[in-house]
């Protein structure tokens, strides 16, 4: 995939996000207007809160457009890796708006529970609410699908929120029908339930966005795929310590270590590294910004015996998940290797245990044990 194709995909993604958001804005503004009219005419707090929710959805779509536009700005000297992470900020603002709408709605609903007012529904109002349910279901599925297709957290959140709205409108319709049939007013209570649902959705959206900003464990399927692509090369015995750094939707940089024979020259390694970087980017879109090298013994039988014995000792501990990058110099009596240590034990404690055990087996050797995180 060349730079031209990358730019075309980025432009296509931005265009799709803006188009979807504009559709959401127009739809939500119309729904909000109709629902507000119905709510005030029928004196229904639940319908009015539903209308307010639609307005918050329209505002969310506006923020999504702004985030997409700012996030697509070209890299510059100040921000050499671009502005992609701005989209996570826009997702957080959308979540905050949803959360605020939910809290405000809950306050109003509680007031109506304390001081109830009788609603007065008409046939037209019920029809409008029914149409709103259908429209929101269609809009929600469309927006969420586009969000997943173009990896836009803000769009996906807006789509999920729209589907919630359909459920909310359905509950408003149900309370209206119950009131008309049996004269039981559930208005304020339905409004309170609606508010709790909105608050819950806002919190979940906020948590997801915070996780994206903080950084989270890479997708297992993707990381295994990248490691397998690297290990396909005949010179590579294994790929380890893969970490993916996210700089916005569809912009991932990575670093990795690969284990190669100790007989390879710098020129051989350079050619291999460039080949792997091109292949991984073409297959996954991940840019390998750093490729480290582990060398392994190829001609020393004693070294192989030592490795097997050390590995057996290291992996006898449940918290030692993997050993790699092992190299031993039997002439100069030096040994080095990396160990992936789980979060069940402190690194310092694990290293102290391993150094003692390996030193007891090979007291004449100088040890270098590097702890790796379980990423």
Walk me through what this model shows.
This protein has 375 residues and is α/β, with parallel strands linked by helices. The chain has three domains: 3-214, Alpha-lytic protease prodomain-like (Up-down Bundle); 217-296, 2-Layer Sandwich (Alpha-Beta Plaits), CATH 3.30.70; 298-375, 2-Layer Sandwich (Alpha-Beta Plaits). Helices cover 64% and strands 15% of the residues. The chain contains ten helices and six strands, in the order αααααααββαβαββαβ. It has a three-stranded mixed sheet with strand order 1-2-3, with helices on one face. A three-stranded mixed sheet has the order 4-5-6, covered by helices on one side. A hairpin with a 5-residue loop joins β1 (238-246) and β2 (252-261). The longest helix has 40 residues, at 3-42. The radius of gyration is 29 Å and the shape is elongated.
User: Which class of secondary structure composition applies to the elements?
Assistant: alpha/beta
Residue share in β-strands = 5-15%
At the fourth level of CATH, the homologous superfamily of the largest domain is Cation efflux protein transmembrane domain
User: What is the gyration radius calculated from CA atoms?
Assistant: 29 Å
Q: Give the low-pLDDT segments.
A: none
Any idea of the CATH class of the largest domain?
A: Mainly Alpha
By CATH, the topology of the largest domain is Alpha-lytic protease prodomain-like
> What percent of the residues sit in helical stretches (DSSP H or I)?
55-70%
Q: Could you give the order of the helices and strands?
A: HHHHHHHEEHEHEEHE
The end-to-end span amounts to 27 Å
The major sheet is characterized as: 3 strands, mixed
* Mean pLDDT over all positions: 83
Number of strands: 6
Figure out the total of helices: 10
What is the 3D form? elongated
Strand order of the largest sheet: 1-2-3
> Architecture of the largest domain in CATH?
Up-down Bundle
Total domain units: 3
């Amino acid at each position: 995939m060349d730079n031209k194709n990358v730019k075309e995909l980025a432009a296509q993604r931005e265009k799709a996000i803006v188009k979807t958001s504009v559709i959401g804005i127009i739809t939500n503004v119309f729904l909000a207007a109709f629902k507000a009219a119905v709510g005030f005419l029928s004196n229904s707090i639940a319908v009015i809160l539903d209308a307010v929710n639609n307005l918050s959805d329209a505002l969310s779509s506006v923020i999504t457009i702004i985030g997409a536009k700012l996030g697509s700005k070209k890299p510059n000297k100040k921000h050499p890796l671009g502005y992609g992470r701005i989209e996570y900020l826009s997702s957080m603002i959308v979540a905050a708006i949803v959360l605020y709408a939910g809290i405000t709605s809950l306050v109003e609903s509680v007031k109506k529970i304390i001081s109830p007012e009788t609603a007065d529904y008409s046939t037209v109002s019920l029809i409008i609410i029914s149409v709103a349910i259908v429209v929101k279901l269609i809009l929600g599925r469309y927006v969420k699908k586009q969000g997943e297709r173009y990896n836009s957290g803000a769009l996906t959140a807006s789509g999920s929120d729209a589907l919630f709205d359909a459920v909310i409108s359905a509950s408003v319709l149900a309370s209206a029908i119950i009131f008309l049939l049996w004269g039981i007013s559930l208005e304020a209570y339905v409004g309170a339930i609606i508010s709790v649902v909105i608050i819950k959705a806002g919190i979940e959206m906020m948590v997801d966005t915070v996780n994206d900003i903080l950084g989270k464990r890479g997708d297992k399927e993707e990381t295994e795929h990248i490691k397998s692509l690297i290990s396909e090369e005949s010179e590579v015995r294994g790929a380890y310590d893969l970490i993916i750094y996210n700089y916005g939707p569809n912009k991932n940089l990575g670093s990795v270590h690969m284990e190669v024979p100790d007989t390879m020259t710098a020129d051989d390694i350079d050619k291999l590294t460039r080949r792997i970087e091109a292949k991984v980017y073409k297959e996954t879109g991940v840019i390998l910004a750093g490729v480290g090298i582990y060398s392994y013994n190829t001609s020393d039988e004693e070294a192989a015996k030592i490795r097997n014995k050390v590995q057996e000792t290291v992996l006898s501990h449940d918290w030692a998940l993997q050993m790699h990058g092992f190299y031993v110099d039997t002439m100069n009596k030096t040994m080095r290797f990396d160990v992936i240590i789980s979060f069940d034990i402190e690194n310092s404690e694990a290293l102290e245990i391993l150094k003692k055990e390996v030193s007891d087996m090979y007291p004449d050797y100088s040890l270098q044990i590097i702890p790796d995180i379980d990423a």
